[in-house]
Amino acid sequence: MRTVFPLSLLSAALALALSSQGAVARVGIASVVEGEPVGLPPGPAQRVLRVGIDMNADEKVTTKADDRAHLVFLDGTSLTIGPNSEVVIDKYVYSSEKKTGELALRVQRGTLRFVGGIISKTSEVTVATPSATLGIRGGIFTVSVSALGATTANFLFGASFSVTS
Q1: 22 pLDDT above the threshold of 70
Q2: Does the global pTM surpass 0.90?
Q3: CA atoms within 13 A on the CB side of 98
């Protein structure tokens, strides 16, 4: 089952997330979900992700065979998490006034498509996997991590892309 909402509703949900001030650092929202991907934020219990759910720093997203999740961050970065994946938002700091920040992700298994937002235009975003660390500036890439931890990355567009094993 695929749920898609108009961009105006997505914008309203993102604005609401920006205006909410709570103990947990909200970093974006789930904008499209298919199946029942699960989020495990720090503190609260695990929950099934639905469209409009706030995403938090240090949250782990897990998908099963029929699940997918598309996350949009406050700086415009987007992640599409494929089936049978586990991704952690290790670090997300963003200043909308300065248009700068830091983003670090961890992909334990599965597939991910990354489209960089404002943060990736001013600093390198890092993605750690069991076998490599990826760095990207201002771009788009895909990464796949096998069950044994082998990493395959494809740089599709951008200023720079580095892989360190």
Answers
A1: no
A2: no
A3: 9
